[in-house]
Write a structure and sequence with these properties.
Blueprint (H helix, E strand, L loop, with lengths): L1 E5 L5 E7 L2 E9 L5 E7 L2 E9 L5 E7 L2 E9 L6 E8 L6 E7 L5 E9 L2 E10 L4 E7 L2 E12 L2 E10 L2 E10 L4 E7 L2 E10 L3
Antiparallel strand pairs: 1-2, 2-3, 3-4, 4-5, 5-6, 6-7, 7-8, 8-9, 9-10, 10-11, 11-12, 12-13, 13-14, 14-15, 15-16, 16-17
């Protein structure tokens, strides 16, 4: 059946009930002011639903045992470093593949790819507001492995494609300028490794 349950702490539930438990569609307001409208199973938010925090953060998507779990979208309150994240969640954490839209005060525009507990981890592409992009591999938020960075330097666009270590060019890679000039070889700590490499000029 359906009904309304009011608790001494101010929590209030209205919706479907089964054997005195929240089961099916319902709406709940917690004592803190947080709200949820959606599916319940055995008293827990499980299924599809929408939750709004007292600070204004909104999550809409799949839930499991009172946690964000599955596919969903979270929109953050003003002042957060992210505007939104849409993609996969696991046990209440941003883990899986998804897309971040950054706030106006950030120099970054968006990130789309793999995440681990809200940190860039795995394959993805990051876009800055100045047009620069990095497409490649992250390890816990750091460029690690193979990737390509397109960016502007001294009013000239160029790219580096190759190996990275600890956020720096490190290993074998190629840097090419817009006019076609390039340097290909071994890098160390972000710099060309002395004596090893190939320079190519277009003219």
């Amino acid at each position: 059946g359906t009904g309304t349950v009011v608790y001494n702490d101010g929590k209030k539930y209205t919706g479907e009930l089964k054997e005195a438990k929240f089961e099916g569609q319902g709406a709940i307001t917690y004592a803190s002011g947080e709200t949820y409208i959606g599916e319940f199973k055995s008293d827990k938010r499980t299924g599809f639903g929408k939750g709004v925090s007292t600070s204004g953060r909104i999550y809409e998507g799949q839930w499991k045992d009172d946690h964000w779990d599955g596919i969903g979208k979270v929109t953050y309150e003003e002042g957060n470093k992210w505007i939104s994240y849409e993609g996969e969640f696991k046990e209440g954490k941003i883990t899986g593949t998804g897309k971040i839209i950054y706030a106006e005060n950030s120099n970054m525009l968006s990130y789309e790819g793999e995440m681990l507990e809200a940190i860039r981890h795995g394959e993805g592409i990051l876009i800055w507001k100045n047009g620069a992009t990095f497409k490649g591999h992250w390890e816990k938020g750091i460029w690690e492995g193979k990737g390509r960075l397109d960016y502007e330097e001294d009013n000239d666009w160029l790219y580096y494609e190759g190996e990275y270590k600890n956020d720096s060019r490190d290993g074998y890679g190629k840097m090419e300028y817009r006019n076609g000039d390039s340097w290909e070889g071994t890098w160390k700590n972000g710099s060309r490794y002395t004596g090893v490499g190939t320079v190519t000029y277009t003219s």
